[in-house]
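Hi F.,

I've been meaning to write this up properly since the lab meeting, where we talked about keeping a consistent format for the predictions we share between groups. The idea is simple: the sequence comes first, exactly as it goes in, then the structure tokens exactly as they come out, then a line or two of notes. No screenshots and no reformatting. I'm using this chain as the first example so we have something concrete to point to.
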Amino acid sequence: MHEDVFRTDDGSGSSTQAPLPLPLDFEAHYVMNQEAWHSYALYRLRTNDAAERAVHRAFLEVLRVWDELLAEANLPQQTWSILRRVVGDEALATARDEITAMASETGLYAALLNLPQRQFDVIILRYVLHYSSQKTSWYLGITVSTVDYHLREARKRLAPVHHNHRGTTPTKEKEADQ
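Output, unedited:
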């Protein structure tokens, strides 16, 4: 944990200097939670490297706002929500990388990657990670109706690729349903 927190005499960072002393209560929080956080991240991200990267980043974010977090009513809940967000970000980045590596004859993967970030996130959270609209809204910090809006917009953008692959058009499908 100390390797990213350094200071030189002029205030700039340097890895050749001694680590900054961390607040004792932060170090205690780190020691008490590191194993559980890593287990959670490993379960969600499936690789040790990704889990370590996410937990490390989460603790650095916690450290950055440590004084504000100490004023919160429920410190463990607040820091856990930071971990969940960071692990979710890592999962989304991994999903984006996996989609980039996939071959697609239909162009669907390329179309997914061309979605605006919020629409991509909603598609991944809803259809790949199988989050409910409510959980997706909580994670992204938006309302359920905004999740539904981004979902509709993403589906509109993906419709030409999807319908082209299926050999249908939106009007043909509507006529077939009637």
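Notes:
Residues 105 and 142 are 34 Å apart (CA to CA).
The chain is about 70% helix and 0% strand.

If this format works for you, I'll send the rest the same way.

G.
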